[in-house]
Amino acid sequence: MSGEESKGGIAMNVRQMRESRGWSQEDLAAAAGLSARTVQRIERGQVPRGDSLQSLAAAFETSVKDLRSEQRVDAGLDPDYVKAIKGLQMHLVSFAVCSPALCLFNLLVTPEQIWVQWAVLPWVLGVALHMLMLRIQFGKVQVFL
Question: What is the domain extent for residue 125?
Fold first, then answer.
């Protein structure tokens, strides 16, 4: 495991373990005897010093090895699946924002000629194909994780 992978794994694990307990960053800092700024830096990917890592492990009642684990401790989700779902979510958000804007633009600029369906219908097809590809690749589509 490279240092780059390890720091990303630590950041994700710390955040997931903190959130699963319903703790704020300040709560975790108090439990681990660290500053809130240190917790923020670790969650952003800064590699923690050994003593900070020990303190975090003690606060979570786990081992340093579990904190460093590439396999997310609390979430049994495939990282590739999470990334793919976030892509689908961005696709859906852009559709939800742009479609009404296009409808409004169409009605304001050329109310006598409705053309917006020629932009929106292919987009609907694109979203459907995006979902189908996720279904084929991962065997499921869960838009909200």
Answer: 79-138
